[in-house]
Amino acid sequence: MTPVGGAAVQIRGYLDHLAVEKGASVHTLAAYRRDLARYREYLADSGVGDLGAVTESHVEDFRARLATADPDTGRRALAPSSVARALAAVRGVHRFATRDGVTPTDVAAAVTPPRPPRRLPKALPVGRIIAVIEAAGGTEVDTDPARLRDRAMLELLYATGARAAELVGLDVDDVDGLDHPDGGTVILRGKGGKERVVPVGRPACIAVGAYLVRARPALAGKGGPALFLNTRGGRVTRQTLWNVVTVAAERAGVAEDVSPHSFRHSFATHLLDGGADIRVVQELLGHASVTTTQVYTLVTVETLREVWAECHPRAR
Known about the structure:
Layout: H1 5-20, H2 26-45, H3 56-66, H4 80-99, H5 126-135, H6 145-160, H7 164-168, E1 175-176, E2 184-189, E3 195-200, H8 202-214, H9 216-219, H10 238-252, H11 260-273, H12 278-285, H13 290-293, H14 295-311
Antiparallel strand pairs: 1-2, 2-3
């Protein structure tokens, strides 16, 4: 087996480039690091020690290997979406190597990722979203700090369409105007550290205000900037948020699988159902391209079709 020290160094340089120059998120870097570790292993098995020795056939073979199970080694076939992500990492490292003159040509440029099947986001009806929020507790007479916090997190999740990482990453100073009669604003930090300002309605402002006054002081140990705290005074994690959502959904008797991303999907779908311009929804969600946001228009068309099929006298 030929050592892959050269390839390992080149790949490490690409990951450093993503972290420092591109500002890739921790989660993106972790995923690319795993995918490129698979690629390094494949190159080692193929006797390739440097990216300059890689051919287009190697990249195509690597893509095929990811999508194929191997009973002898116990390797499982990856889903098309996982193969596409891994190939994106491989294409990126070869593009980087070519740009920096490490390789004369980009051998991965012509290798296309598999097209994952289109899966429509699962949005909950407004009534069920409200039921989940209400099930978290945090009412006006509630004195439990955790319930006040949970209510504030769910209200803010639906009010802003934030990703889970964006919500748990909020600091106290990121929320403003909670006492304003028209609602406040929140600064969300999305992928690549890109910031966006999203309006927050009165129900979420009231819930977050109640949490800040009646709960956070009891949770704060040594203080710190984090908005949402756990019982030890540290910043809540995405897993905590996930648990809060699933427990509240169970209490509300919602049969569907509900996750923090369900709130994001519902946020976008309900805005479009209400007549919001897709470009506005794109900005609110923090999507780099409107193409990503357009999937939600398919959801609203499906909703219209279901209502039509149920209610129109000549639908059947």
